[in-house]
Design a protein that fits this description.
The protein is mainly beta and 245 residues long. It has one domain. It is 0% helix and 52% strand. An 11-stranded parallel beta sheet has the order 1-4-7-10-13-16-19-22-25-28-31, with no helix packed on it.
Length: 245
């Protein structure tokens, strides 16, 4: 059994069946409520239309939930997180996802695939376009991931994980001390040929754990703290140079 939304709804929609698809003519547009769309553990949402919260959050799915945002799909939240999934959640994006504090928040870990043409953004002082807080996160990017704001970050992983930036992919932080990537507990960053990681301040900041950086693309950041290549590390780091990538 599956569900379909083909018109515009103006109140929070709780998913009753899985999968549910919002088709191109469908929309959920709300204001002054916590979420636009909610679903329980394991629910699947496919968005070809529009999900918008003009104040707080966009989509919330429970642990193991799956979100697919198609090329025609947009998910936006003005102030807080555009997408929030429980542990083990999965997001595939080919369209646009934009939030205030976070674009995609998989606090308990999971996976994000941002395909070519996909854009994930967050725009606020402490914005994290993709956020993994308490569980390891696997991110594969062929589109654009952008944090905008004074201390913004493109991808922030606090519990480890793996970031693979494919050809044509950009991971960026724009703002006074913005970073492209921040790792607090180590992980792996694989920047492939044609990939770009950039920050207004350093491009990559490593705060702890053991980290491996494989770079065959471009890493651009300010030379801060003695860094000459846009990477600042306060922990163990292994670099695999371009020639060996």
């Amino acid at each position: 059994m599956s569900g379909t939304i083909s018109t515009t709804l103006t109140a929070t929609y709780g998913l009753a069946v899985s999968p549910t698809t919002i088709v191109a003519t469908g929309a959920v547009e709300v204001a002054a409520v916590d979420y636009a769309v909610t679903g329980g553990p394991g629910f699947t949402l496919i968005n070809d239309g529009q999900i918008r919260n003009t104040v707080f959050r966009g989509v919330s799915l429970g642990a193991g939930g799956t979100l697919t945002n198609a090329a025609s799909g947009t998910i936006t939240a003005a102030l807080l997180n555009a997408v929030v999934l429980g542990s083990g959640g999965s997001v595939t994006n080919s369209g646009g996802i934009g939030g205030g504090t976070a674009g995609v928040d998989l606090t308990g870990g999971g996976s994000v695939l941002n395909e070519a043409g996909g854009a994930i953004t967050a725009n606020s002082g402490l914005a994290r376009a993709i956020l993994g807080l308490y569980g390891p996160l696997t991110v594969t990017n062929a589109g654009s991931v952008t944090g905008i704001g004074g201390s913004a970050t493109g991808i922030a992983l606090y519990a480890g994980g793996t970031i693979t930036n494919l050809a044509g992919g950009t991971i960026s932080g724009y703002g006074g001390s913005a970073r492209g990537i921040a790792l607090s507990a180590g992980g792996v960053v694989d920047n492939m040929a044609g990939g770009v990681i950039q920050g207004t301040n350093p491009a990559i900041v490593i705060g702890g754990g053991s980290t491996t950086i494989v770079n065959a693309g471009t890493i651009i950041g300010a030379s801060v703290g003695g860094s000459s290549d846009g990477v600042i590390s306060f922990a163990d780091i292994t670099r695999v140079p371009q020639a060996a990538a």
